[in-house]
Predict the structure.
Amino acid sequence: MPAETHVARDPADPSEVFRIVRSHLAEILEVDDDEVSLDASVVDDLHADDPAILELVAAIEDDFGERTVGFSIDDDDLADLHTVRDYVDYVVERLRSVG
């Protein structure tokens, strides 16, 4: 029996999704992680423009696409994503539906 054990992690763990989304937003928008809260509006509070949002979507799809086959963010759904929490909840739900 192998000495090493692996703990299965839920790919849709909201705190992990938030950590990843926050990291991507901070990098793309060149802000401190602390400025990216769940309730922050991506456009109004963090001042993301359309190219930054598209970069965020691509980064999220790349990151979670490596973990979950078939993960993507539908372009039609972007209009409904306003806060960081909206993005996190959306990603969690999508991961659970394709997982």
Helices lie at 14-29, 50-67, 84-98. The two ends are 28 Å apart (CA to CA).
